[in-house]
Amino acid sequence: KLTRYVVIDEVSFRAVKGNGFVALLHELQPRFRILDRKKIAGLVYDLFLVEKAKIETSQVLYHVNVPMDVKTRWNATYKMLEVSLKYRRVFERMAEEWFPFINYFHEEDEKGKKRLGPPVSDDWDNAKAFVHFMKNFYDATLEISASKSPTSQLIYQSLIALQLEIERKRLDDSDPTLKKVSHAMKLKFDKYWGNWDNMNPSIFIANVLDPRNKLQMIKVSIKKFGGTATRIQEFVNKVKLELVNLWMEHKGLSHMLNIESQSMQLERDGGGGGTSSAGGGLYDKLFDDVDAQNEEEQLLEISNEVDKYLADEIENRSNQYFNLLEWWKGNENRYPIISITAKDIFAIPSSTVARKAVFSLGKRVLDPFRSCLSPKMIEALVCTSDWLRAEDFSFWKDPTDDDLEL
Questions:
Q1: Burial label, 34 (beta-carbon count in 10 A; 0-12, 13-18, 19+)
Q2: Where does the hAT-like transposase RNase-H fold domain start and stop, copy by copy (predicted)?
C-alpha cells in the first residue's frame, strides 16, 4: 500500500521518511517499519512489472476511452468506429460474460424503444468497411487543413480522389449499405463540387503551379469522368488563359515597379530631359506602330514563359524530399513572373478553419523530482500510476477531464 501511495499520489521516494508522515504512521500502527528510499524504488519497479504482466496476459488495457459519436460531426463517428474495432474482442467477450453490459441492451432508451445491440459479426464487418471508406475523407481533411505548409494546390486533387472513391463505392454491389451511403454522398458532392465551370479558378491554377502536376492532373481527371478530347482541350485552354491573365497582371505590376524605380533614380541623378512635342500628329502613326510592335512582343513573351513552364519536364512525384516552395524559389530566375503568381496563389489557405491540436499530453508533465530519475524508473512511475488510477474508472458514467487525460 505504501508503494501504491508513492505511485498514485506522485510523491518523491523520500516523502515516506518525512517527519510528519512517519509520525502519522506510528500513530496508526506503532509497529510499522518505514522503508528507505532504495527499498521503495525497488518495490515501485516490482509493482510496475506485476501490472505490466497482467496487461500482457489479458492483452487488454483496463482503461479504454472509446470516443462517443456526435451526430453533427462525421469525424467523431469515424474515430469512434476506428477505436472500437481495435477492441472488438473486448466487446465480444463483454457480450458473453459481463451481465451489466448485456442487460444494458435489454433496456429501453429514453424514447421507449429497445436499444440496438450488442454488435454482432455483421455489424463489425460493416464498421470495418465504413472506417476504410471514411479514412480517405479524414486524411484529406487533415491534409488540406495544415497550417505550416501550402495547401491550395491540394484542393483539386483531393476533390478528384474523393469523387473517384465515392463513385467506386456507388457502383460496388458487394456492399449494399455502403453503396446506398455513397449514392447520397454523391448527390451532396455534386451539389457543391459537381460543376467544374463554377469553381474558383484559383483551385485549378494552384494545381497547375505544382510542377509535379502542371496540366496533366486536369487532363487525366476529366478523362476519368468520361470527358471527350474536345472537352479536355476546352477546359485546359480555359485554365491556361486564367494563368496567362494572372501572368499579365503580375507582369504589369512588375513593369510599374521598374518604371517607378527608374523614375526615382532619374530624380536622384537630376536627369529627365523632356521629349519635344513639335510636329503634333507627325509622329502619331509611327508611335502607334511602335506600340503595336511592343504588344506583339509582349504576347510572344507571355507565350514563351507560360508555355515554357508547361512544356518543361514534370518533376518526379516519387521524390519524398520535394518542397514546393523551395522549388519555386530555386526557379525564380527561370520563371520570373510566374514565380510571383505562384507566391500569391500558394499563400491562399485551402481552409479558414483553425486546426486544433490533435494530440495532447495533458498532465503528463515531469516535475523536477521525476526529471532527475532514470528513463526506466520514469516509465515505471508514469505507466503504473495510470494503471492503478484506471481501477476507479467507471464504464457507466461520463469520464471527467482528468479521466480523459490519463
A1: middle
A2: 145-249
Residue type, 222: I
pLDDT tens by residue, 157-180: 888 888 999 999 999 888 888 899
**CA distances (Å), origin 97, targets 48, 103, 271, 393:** 28, 11, 97, 19
Place of cell 494552384: 206
Nearest residue to 196 via CA among 223, 173, 222, 178: 222
What are the cell numbers at 30? 506503532
Question: Can you give the length of the chain in residues?
Answer: 406
Q: How confident is the model at residue 331 (pLDDT cuts 50, 70, 90)?
A: very high
Distance CA 192, CA 122 (A): 34
C-alpha 243/C-alpha 302 separation (Å) is 10
C-alpha dihedral (347, 352, 353, 354), degrees to nearest 10: 50
Residue where the block lists cell 518604371:
259
Give yes or no for a contact between 18 and 5, defined as CB atoms under 8 angstroms apart.
no
- Residue 129 C-alpha cell reads as 468497411
Cβ neighbours for 370, distance < 8 A, ≥ 6 positions apart: 10, 378, 381
Cell of 52: 505490466
**For the segment 58-86, what is each residue's pLDDT rounded down to a tens digit?**
555 445 577 777 666 777 788 888 888 88
CA distances (Å), origin 371, targets 47, 246, 335 = 20, 56, 53
Angle between helices 201-208 and 154-170 (to 10 degrees): 100
Indicate whether this model's pTM tops 0.85: no
Burial (CB < 10 A; 0-12, 13-18, 19+), residue 86, is exposed
The answer to whether 179 and 173 are in contact (CB under 8 A) is yes
CA distances from 126 to 104, 118, 132, 138 (A): 22, 14, 10, 18
DSSP labels, 80-131: HHHHHHHTHHHHHHHHHH-HHHHHHTTSB-TTSPBPP-S--HHHHHHHHHHH
Residue 260 CB: number of other CB atoms within 10 A?
Answer: 10
